[in-house]
Amino acid sequence: MRGPAVGLGLAVVALAVCGSATPALAVSGTATPALAVPGSATPALAYAPPGTPDVAPSGRPPVSGWGDAPVRTKPHRRSELESPTGRAAVPGADPIVASRTAVTSASVAPGPQSPVQQQVLALVNQERKEAGCDPITLDRRLIQAANRHASDMARRGYFDHESPAGEKAGSRVTGAGYPWRRYGENIAKGQDSPFRVMADWMRSPGHRENILDCRLDQMGVGLALAADDTPYWVQDFATPRS
């Protein structure tokens, strides 16, 4: 697997009940929030009224981006950062220890019990526990939505929350059969292990906010490898409509 140029992105977290939304993160090669204003590396908050989660009016205050790495400006909702490649560790019974192992084509699995899902879940819940949040759980529909987007980006070679056809994060979650009240998305490209992608996301204020949002209850992780073995990551969070 070639050395990654790490990047991150941030998507939107929307409240369907009251029509407000908070930012979600998307990442490509590094961890950076994906609600950036076109032509700017600084992501902005997006708001979505009920039933239209992906519509983002202007005029909202900016969301913080990564502050500890050089940023290259990217159009539409993302920044790209350079990040060192992590060393692969010997897998162990502890999913946090095993999370340092480099991913391969065999790592891509859709079920909640797959190693990648369990390793990212353990890392997320470790961070949420320290922040005082309840643990998050895995949901097959969110895994499906995340894997679908990761595979599409890897296959078509783009890096964004919005597909070339215009499909956005909220539509993907809904399309997977998940009736959400709130959702968020982080994306990343180039990180070679669950440990590395989580480290990058946690260094980004926007992505970190999604991971530590106590109002989000469930998660699914998407992972796909492009033809050149570049990993594409998607992390979809949501709270079901009650």
Automatic annotation (TrEMBL):
It comes from the Bacteria. Residues 121-237 form the SCP domain. Keywords: Signal. SUPFAM superfamilies: PR-1-like. Residues 48-92 are annotated as: Disordered. Residues 1-26 form the signal peptide. PANTHER family: SCP DOMAIN-CONTAINING PROTEIN. This is CAP domain-containing protein.
